[in-house]
Amino acid sequence: MREAVDEFAAYLAQVRNRSAHTVRAYVTDVVSLLDHAVRAGGRSPADLDLAVVRSWLARQRMTGAARSTLARRAAAARTFSAWAHRGGLLPADVAAPLASPRAHRKLPTVLRADQAAALLATADPTTTDPTTTDPTTTDPATTDPTTTGEHATTGEHATTGERAGGEPTGGRMGTPPNVGPAAGGDDAVRLRDVLLLELLYATGVRVSEACGLDVADVDPGRRLLRVLGKGGRERTVPYGVPAQRALDAWLRHGRPSLAGPRSRDALLLGARGGRLNATTARRIVSGYAAAAGLPKVSPHGLRHSAATHLLEGGADLRAVQELLGHSSLASTQIYTHVSVERLRAAYRQAHPRA
């Protein structure tokens, strides 16, 4: 059975072009399914049948698995069954009739526009002044930023104030460092943080997409990003003037301070010069949100916020779909519900007959 699992993983990654996260999740589910089949008396994948799959899902439900988790595990079982049948490992596609439980679809939590502005201003206080055009001009008397108090497990420090050597800095987070052409590691990290937040909110890209950007993926003349999304699908995403200012400051004064042999062509770098990883990026966002006094915010929360604010500003739903890289319009339509909920809340608060 181990050989079948390995071949299935290769199929998902090489033929279906699934992300590493999807491959890992599906393989974990299939291993659990086959282990359940062995306990039921099975000797090989050919002994798998619909009753075994259903009993496996029933057991998952009894142990408290969420409906969304059950839906994913059912999808993994169907995918494995279809693949095994085509490859001759199963006499029939036994999981084809399997129905997935409908997951409860929760409305995403989004920031208000003023909260998003407060988050960006915490990272770069110059954004509070609309006349400011160079985010590298800050008060020389200010102190260093601090860390979020967390470290990434992948070797890069997940802080808003990192030293190039890897040690966290002291001081009060939210206070801008002295940034200029001779910027040190602390200042370079702050410039990177500003760019990360600006890109996540300005473009609505996924955190993995932002971390995967190379310098060559940026077209500053037209203010466009070339993004490689899920399934290897490439799309072009525009960004605005504030993000361009943050990008210029990072490329001029930040990236050269952190760049090293490990940097290669990566746009966003960690404190030790390697490509910024998603775990660190998530902690950066949550750290600045806490410093701004906002509710818990993740990079995906900024993606939700960007989409909602676009729709509230009159953007076409299809345009937002293209911007986010959704393969189905149904995935984008949830943001229309968010806008309606906000409209209802405003109505209840303001209308005398609400």
Strand content: under 5%
| Order of strands in the sheet with most strands | 1-2-3
From the 3D coordinates, which CATH architecture of the largest domain would you assign?
A: Orthogonal Bundle
Q: What fold name stands as the CATH topology of the largest domain? A: hpI Integrase, Chain A
The separation of the N and C termini measures 61 Å
In the CATH scheme, the class of the largest domain would be Mainly Alpha
Task: Please characterize this protein's 3D structure.
The chain is 50% helix and 3% strand. The chain is mainly alpha-helical. The chain folds into 2 domains: 2-86, DNA polymerase, domain 1, CATH 1.10.150; 113-302, Intergrase catalytic core (hpI Integrase, Chain A, Orthogonal Bundle), CATH 1.10.443.10. A hairpin with a 4-residue loop joins β1 and β2.
Q: How do you describe this structure in short?
A:
This protein is mainly alpha-helical. It has two domains: 2-86, DNA polymerase, domain 1 (Orthogonal Bundle), CATH 1.10.150; 113-302, Orthogonal Bundle (hpI Integrase, Chain A), CATH 1.10.443.10.
